[in-house]
Design brief:
Elements lengths: L1 H5 L3 E6 L6 H13 L2 E6 L11 H8 L9 E5 L4 H7 L4 E6 L2 H18 L2 E6 L9 H10 L13 H11 L9
Parallel strand pairs: 1-2, 1-4, 2-3, 4-5
């Protein structure tokens, strides 16, 4: 039992974080309490067009990690299991919002276990963040006429500002 108690457990919370949301930050806060060290891995999802570069996503995330001494973040390319190994981690943390997430994440967890010997731990989203999705946030901003107030309860202020700069929706009467 003493060996188990003294073992240092490093976990990776991987995502595209394009952009980082309050839902992501909630999972980070909760995972930071469970593991000795948490590495937030900012990867690339080949199935989605990325709005921000990995470096921009890292810059948007870093100010929100300052309160967690056991959390760091890094960008990476390639397979997540390779990144997990590079970090010296044993666990992959994944946030689950709904049954669709669970279905997909169970398949990935089994695959990561099979080919990478990496365990997965699922953290259920808080009720407040169940509908928070980076895709939805971009759509709400774009289709809502660029009204930043519509996304302020879903993303931190620095992210909302940067999202508005990137998407640059001209006012309705602007012809340029």
């Amino acid at each position: 039992m003493a060996d188990t108690e003294s073992k240092r457990i490093v976990a990776v919370f991987q995502g595209s974080f394009d952009p980082v949301t309050f839902g992501h930050l909630d999972v980070i806060r909760r995972a930071a309490k469970l593991f000795n060290e948490l590495v937030v891995g900012i990867g690339v999802n080949p199935d989605k067009a990325q709005l921000f570069t990995p470096e921009e996503r890292l810059a948007l995330l870093l100010p929100h990690l300052e309160e967690f001494p056991n959390v760091r973040a890094a960008t990476y390319d390639g397979l997540t299991i390779d990144f997990v190994r590079q970090c010296g981690a044993q666990v992959l943390v994944r946030g689950i919002r709904d049954m669709a997430d669970l279905h997909n994440e169970v398949q990935l967890a089994n695959l990561n276990q099979l080919i990478g010997n990496v365990e997965s731990v699922f953290i259920l989203s808080s009720d407040r963040h169940v509908m928070t999705s980076s895709t939805y946030i971009k759509q709400i901003y774009e289709m809502g006429g660029g009204d930043i107030s519509r996304i302020e309860q879903l993303v931190p202020p620095n992210v909302a500002t940067k999202l508005a700069e990137h998407l640059r929706i001209p006012p309705p009467n602007d012809k340029g």
